[in-house]
Design brief:
Helix content is 38%, strand content 18%. Helix 8 links the parallel strand 4 and strand 5.
């Protein structure tokens, strides 16, 4: 399969840093399926070092795995719309902040611009949530996005219901399966799964 024939997927990463080890593994699995994976980074992912690792190290790993230079700016994300080169866009992890802004139509990061630009082409946008307020302030946003055309969710569940009752996180091992279904215009089921 040539580069032009490969499925081309954007993998947009926002700042749920505790999930980055899982995201590296997801990226490897997608790349092993002979698809072109283009990383897209929020500003926080580009610049914030945390106890889970340095921003530079994470970006280097992602670009090594994919063999692709990432998208770092709003200006570089905008052509995703007119050029229409993505078959699907995955936001993984998708923080509550990004979720709320996406629902409100705000485009102040490369990830949000990529989502806006991609949705204009009526192709699948897959959301892999990781947020402490999924059952709180963001509950309404999840519901609204679930009812929007071309938006699909990776199945998710509560990750620590005894200590963080409102927190939910996607089952990242199901990103690939969610992508396959979304490319056929279907939401993978069940969407709500047990605790992780």
């Amino acid at each position: 399969m040539t580069r032009e024939q490969k499925l081309t997927v954007g993998l947009a990463v926002t700042g749920s840093f505790c999930t980055f080890a899982k995201i590296r593994e997801v990226t490897k699995r997608l790349a092993e399926q002979d698809m072109r994976v283009i990383p897209i980074y929020s500003f926080h992912v580009q610049n914030m070092d945390t106890r889970f690792g340095s921003a530079e190290e994470f970006r280097r790993d992602m670009e090594e795995i994919t063999g692709e230079k990432g998208i770092y700016t709003i200006q570089d994300a905008e052509p995703i719309g007119p050029d229409g080169y993505l078959d699907a866009l995955i936001i993984a992890p998708c923080t509550g902040n990004t979720l709320a802004k996406l629902c409100a139509g705000i485009t102040d990061t490369p990830v949000l611009m990529a989502a806006k630009a991609h949705l204009r082409n009526e192709k699948p946008l897959i959301i892999s949530i990781s947020t402490n307020d999924a059952l709180g302030m963001n509950f309404k946003n999840i519901g609204m996005l679930m009812n929007m055309k071309h938006i699909y969710f990776v199945p998710f569940g509560q990750d620590n219901y005894s200590r963080k009752k409102n927190s939910m996180i996607a089952h990242t091992e199901l990103i690939s399966d969610t992508l396959k279904e979304a490319l056929q215009g279907r939401q993978i089921q069940p969407v709500i799964m047990g605790a992780q």
